[in-house]
Amino acid sequence: MTQLAFKINKRSLNNKARFLRKTGQVPGIIYGEFLDKSIPVQIDNGKLTKLLTSNSKGSIIPLNVDDELRNCVVKDIQQNHCGEIIHIDFQYVKDNEVIKMKIPVKYLGQENLELKRLVLENYTPSLEFQGEVEKIPEYIEINVSQMNFEDKILAKDISIPDGITLITEPETLLAIVNA
Fold first, then answer.
1. Rounded distance between C-alpha atoms, residue 124 and residue 16, angstroms
2. I need a surface site. Which of 54, 131, 137, 151 has the fewest CB within 10 A?
């Protein structure tokens, strides 16, 4: 978990999203079961890039919203056709809260496949889990270094950390090794 809180500001609903983007800000929202109401926010595009590169999508991120600390996870990132972030959704979470979260899959050992003139075709970049927020990993690692031509990885084949449940359909194809 990151120790430093990222400072973001509440956003006036009078500020149109298009205007914010032109001034280098990204509009967003913080919502959660334990909030009275959603909090519209804005964050500097540069700070957002820093936040996202230092934290994965599943990690808990402390946000300082007008001098009030809120632990959140990134729930959704909306991008335009050029890949620029145009909106971000944060979910406020409490300790031991049970949430559903999509977690990215990282493949290790692809260089060994390349030595065999094989390539890993990735079909499903993330898996959905449910569990206490502290137990959900930032990502799932799968070692593919010993795989061979036409080997497949299904969701049911991965090792799941204790205390969390796989929500993704077990027969979902994650990746296949091809020539």
1. 35
2. 54
